[in-house]
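Morning. Coffee machine broken again, so started the prediction first thing and wrote up yesterday's gels while waiting. Chain of 588 residues, entered below exactly as on the submission form.
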Amino acid sequence: MILIISTVVIAYSQNTDRIFFEHFSIESGLSHIGVNTIMQDSKGFLWIGTYDGLNRFDGVNFRVFRNDIGDSTSLIHNRIFSIIETEDSLIWIGTEKGLCVYNPTYENFFIPDCADFKIQNSRIIKIFEDSKGRIWVLSDKGNIYIIEKNRTSVRNLSFQNDPDNSVLFWDIRETPNGNFFIASSEGLITLNSDLETIRNNLYEVYCRALDLQGDSLLWLGSPEGLILANYKNNKNNSIDINVIEQVIQGESFTCIHVDNHSNIWAGTGFSGLYKISITGNTDFSVSNYKNDPEKLNTLSNDRTGCIFEDRQGIIWIGSSEKGINKYDPSFRGFHRLSRLNSGNYGLKSDIVLSLIEYNDNILIGTRGKGIYLMNKMNLAFENPEYDFSLLNDISVSSFFNDSRGILWIGTWRGLYCLLPNKKEIERIEKIDNVVVYDISEDDWGNIWIGTRQGLKMLSFNPDHSISLYQDQILDIENKASRFIIRKIYNDPLASTLWIGTWHNGLIQLTGFNNENGRINYQQFKKDPKNNYSLKKLLRKKFDKLCKNILSCVHTFKFMLKFKSINSNRGHGYFNVNDMILVNYKAYV
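Came back before lunch.
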């Protein structure tokens, strides 16, 4: 191999843009805050290897696997360094004490037959599957084991020259031509497609991390900094390397990942996370993200253990000391709009009670100052084409757009509506001078209104007039008219209304098509003797969570339907078939 030092000048600028990280830690269900590796399997599960346990994450919950001394089918060791999935859907795991494999069909672990005493007596730092289906096992004993695709033959590549000083192998990549770069404590190791070692002048430079960009660029991380180089595969099975630039100096880099948009993410041992973005042929910008205890959603810790990009393009950063950070590039942060920056037609109150998308705009209901219209494309407040002047000094607490195209507006002084093709709102005299909290529609087109004075229903007559129903069919032990109804959710799959109350629990209404016109109800309240009862009766934000969980039901084709419940004591899942509520706290 020929090493050529290049004098190309690359200009870069420091970028101070802020991005938002979501955090996962022990409180979220993670087994340990020290994270070494993250992998996504073919079913979409994330597998997280930590200092104490293997974790499988389904997007909501963590399932933890640990060693059980009395169970030979359990994880062989709790400290996990590397995880891969092979074509046969088996999960290979590198641990402090050798290899093991997880079979998701039988949900058990086993030691592969190819793992001999030497492998099982080593710390497995990295597992890698190459283009030929071979599994590379990088150990801390100066050996690289290559398990052939038949999973019986094993080839041992030894790089241990000094018996008192073991070579550590950290990372490996395969080039499109079938050559290999290996990061080690002795420097960059290069192997050609015949697995022959080619020495190079970088061999003596400690190499902790690496990744490839395109067909010719190589990023190297060392305790002294971050290096950008390019490489060229020669016909004689050798590789030429041009070191272009030491992009960052004086930092110890532990991991590198080139994402699908050609951004380079580089984690350090003590200085947080770097992002390098190419902005031109010879220009790029560098951003450094660190933990700031005075700001929410910054990096949880400045010690980075691993970086992984899932199939949705979400970047997951494992911290050596503070769990997992999730960065979703599609989330651009928050743009705050208030009385001070919303223009002539903008907000006159900073207390926003309700929002709805209406005719390609956003209607915003405020406390004591009526309704405002915002163009959702440019976030500019505009003079509405509708006459909302009746509500100028009224608190607007809810919106609902029904199947007829009627916009219902709930306020602290009653109910209003805006009919299709009309410009002026109308007051519903049947529900006047009452605080309206929420509005919904059932499968038969009836409009349900949750108020401070109970639950009410509006029904449309054949002549398009409206009838009001309340106590005669909605009475629950003669108390419904006194309940404060905060939230209403219609489950179209079960013809069921779920009613969230203030201090009176959760109510289920069914039987809307009964011949006697009587609606059935069931009330769920806090029961200190029942762990599956509602822990807290304060009921908020029910509908969005229900829709999310129903989406999951369709996605995974579960046999049972679940409802998600949110209160000031955390979230819960409600099993509709068994009428059981499972409570758990949510951590953000």
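The chain has two domains: 2-327, 352-584. Going to sketch it on the whiteboard this afternoon.
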